[in-house]
UniProtKB/TrEMBL annotation:
Residues 39-49 have a biased composition (Basic and acidic residues). This is Uncharacterized protein. It comes from Pseudictyota dubia. Residues 1-24, 39-60 are annotated as: Disordered. It comes from the Eukaryota.
Length: 103
């Protein structure tokens, strides 16, 4: 009878260990699924971050390109005005010299 009790206890312990093993396998499988999901989410977040950074960079470049073009146009306009002023000054000087000679 004592041997029978030991055998039943050992058998019970084996079933318990098998159940624990199944639970552990299920927990491990669930952890693997969670790891895969977390990895996918991290990759998606990384891709989203890279896309946002690229978009921000493009927008900044566009803004600066617009400002650069505006500054270039402004400088070109000033250069045209300067040339016109130089031409006006040269004409005025020529007219003044002509008046001096005529006087």
């Amino acid at each position: 009878e004592g041997l029978r009790a030991e055998l039943e206890a050992a058998s019970s312990k084996m079933r318990e260990m098998e159940e624990d093993g199944k639970d552990t396998k299920e927990e491990l499988a669930e952890l693997k699924v969670q790891l895969v999901r977390a990895t996918e989410e991290a990759e998606n977040a990384k891709n989203d971050g890279e896309a946002l950074a690229s978009q921000a960079r493009e927008e900044a470049e566009s803004v600066w390109r617009g400002k650069l073009e505006a500054a270039q146009t402004y400088c070109e306009d000033l250069f045209v005005k300067l040339e016109s002023a130089e031409e006006d000054a040269a004409r005025a000087s020529d007219e003044a010299n002509s008046e001096k000679v005529a006087a």
